[in-house]
Specification:
The complex is a heterodimer. Chain A is built from five helices and no strands. Chain A is an all-alpha fold. Chain B is mostly helical. Chain B is built from eleven helices and no strands. In chain B, helix 9 crosses helix 10. The chains are: A mainly alpha, B mainly alpha.
Amino acid sequence: MVDLEFERRLERLFAEAPELPDAGAFAQRVERRLDTGWTARRWLIGAAGVVGGVIGASQLMLSNVFQRVETAGDSARLLSTSINHLSAGTDWMAAVSSAGVVVWVAGAMAVVMMGFVLTRVLGEI
Amino acid sequence: MPGLEHSRFASLHDVELCSLAATGERSAFGELVRRHGSAVRGVLRRMGAQGAEADDTAQDAFLTAFERIAEFRGEGTFAGWVKKIAARLYLRRLQRERRLGAMTAEVAEEEAPRRGDADAVIDLEEALQAIAPAERLCVTMCFGAGLSHSEAAEALNLPLGTVKSHVKRGLEKLRTRLAPDDGAALEGRRGNG
C-alpha cells in the first residue's frame, strides 16, 4: 500500500523544482510577448477610436448638423430676446444664445482630444 | 531599466506582485515569471512535454495567468495556480494534436521494479520516465500541478476510477523506485553537486 508518508515525500519532491539555467531568458520571452500583446491591443483600441470618430464626424456632416445648429442658434436667440424682454435684469441667456461659439468650443476640444490620442499612440510606438 | 525594476520588485511578496500585475504592471508580472518559470516548466516536463513544447506551453500559461490575474485571490500559491493552468493547457494541446488518447491508453507493462538497486534510486525525473505515460500524467497532475483526482479526470476526459487507478499504480511504482531511502539519496546527490 502506498502510504501517506510517501505521498507527502512525493509532494515535496515535486515542489523542489530545479532552477533551469535559462530562467532569465524565459522570463524575458514572456515579458516580450506581454508587451507585444499590450501594444497590439492599444493600437486596436486607437484604430477603433479613430474609425469611430471618422464615422461619427461623417454622420454629423451628412445629417446637416451645422445647419440644424444654426437654426437652433436662431431659435435660441429668438428665445433669449423674448426672455430678455420679459426680464431685462437678467442676461444669462445671452451665453446660451451663442450656440455657434459652443460648436467652436466643442470642435477645439475634439482637436485637443485627437492630439492627446495621437501623442499616446506615438508614445506607444 | 529592467535591472532596476527587477530589484524594485525582488523584495515584494507574490501576492503584492499579483496586485501590481492586476493593475497592468507588466514588470511585476515579469518578476513572478522569473520566480516560478522553472517550476512551471518542470511540471510540464514531468508530464512528458519535451523541452520546446514545455517552454511554449509554460509561456502560454503565464500569458493566460496575466489575462486572468484578477481571478487569482491568493487562496493558494501563485505557482500552484499557474501550474494548474499549464497542466490544462498541455492536455488541451495533446488533445488538439490527437496524442492524448494514445498516451492515456498506453499502459505498458513495466519491467520488474528494481527495489534496492542503487541505479534505480536516482531522482524523480528518472523514476517518472520509467512509469507508463498515463500514470506519469496522472501522478504529475495530482502531485505536481495540485489537481484533485476529479479535476484530473475531467481534464483528461477519463472516468474518475481510471484516474485513481493510474495514480495508485504510478505511486506504487514510484515508491518502489524511490524507496527506501530516496530522500537521503536525493539529499546526498544534491549535496554532492
